[in-house]
Amino acid sequence: MIPPATGVETSPLIGILLGLIQGLTEFLPVSSSGHLVLAQELLGAPRPGIALEIVLHAATLLAVLWTLRLEVAAVAGEAWGALAGLPRRGPAALREARGVWLLILATIPAALAGLLLRGGIEAAFESPRAAAGCLVVTGLLLLATRRLRLRPRELGGRPALAMGLAQALALLPGISRSGWTVGAGLILGVAPAKAVRFSFLMSVPAVLGSLILTLPDVARDAGGHGSLFLAAAFLAAFLSGVAAIRWMLRIVARGRLHYFGFYCLAAGIAGWVLLG
Q1: HSE-up of 203 (CA within 13 Å, CB side)?
Q2: 21 by DSSP, 3-state: which?
Q3: What is the pLDDT of residue 64?
Q4: Under DSSP, is residue 153 helix (H, G, I), strand (E, B) or coil?
Q5: Is 139 within 8 Å of 48 (Cβ atoms)?
Q6: Which of 57, 51, 38 is CA-nearest to residue 8?
Q7: Coil, helix or strand for 190?
Q8: Do 220 and 50 contact (CB within 8 A), yes or no?
Q9: Pairwise CA distance, residues 147 & 129, whole Å
C-alpha cells in the first residue's frame, strides 16, 4: 500500500510514468512499496497523494478483474449462490465453493494485520533501510524457488493459509506481495499456474480493503491533481498491470521466478549501501 502524502507534479506524462511503475511493480515480484520508499529517500521523489493512490489501486484492481475475469466470475457466482441459498450442482460447483472458502481463509491474515497493525505498518514506510533489507529478504525467497522440484499438489487449506500469511507480511515495504504469495505456494507444492492465479485472486479483497481504509483520508489530500493527470495514471496502470499479470503467468510457468530474486537482492543491497 502506498502511504498517503502530497506534492506530486500533475503533468500527464508524470501520471503515465507513475501508472506504469505501479502497474508493473504491483504484479511483478519486485515490491512497488519498497521501490517507492527507496526512491523517495535517494532521489527526493515526492509521495503521491491519497487521490492518486486510490486511482492507481483501482486501476490495478481492474487489471486483475479483467485478466482473470473467468475465475473471478466463477468465484463471485458461487459466493452469491451461497448467500442466496441456491443449490450446488456438479463437481465444478464444488470446486468453486471450495475456492471461495480458500480465498476467505487466505484473506484473513492480511485483513487482521491491516486493521490491528496499521500504525506500525505506516511507520515502516518511514525507514528506507528497513525497506532495503526487506528487498534483500524478498530476493532470497525468490532465489529459493530455483531448486524446487516438488510434486504438484492441490491448493488446499494449508497452502492457502501460508499464502495469506505471506500477503500479510507484504504490507511491509520491500516485501513483494506477488513474490511472497506465489513463492509460498510453490514451496508448499502448489502447481505454478494455480499459485499465480490464486495469488492474483487474493489481491482483489486485499486491494478493496485498502481502498476502503483509504477513502476516509481523501478529504485531507491537498495534492490538487488534475483530471487529465489522474486519467493518464489510471490508464497506464491498468494497461501495464494487464501486461504484468500475463507476463508473470508465463514467467512462473517456465520456472523463471528466481530471476527476479537477483534483481531484488541487488536493489536491496544497493539501497542499503547508498543509505549507509
Answers
A1: 30
A2: helix
A3: 94
A4: strand
A5: no
A6: 51
A7: strand
A8: yes
A9: 29
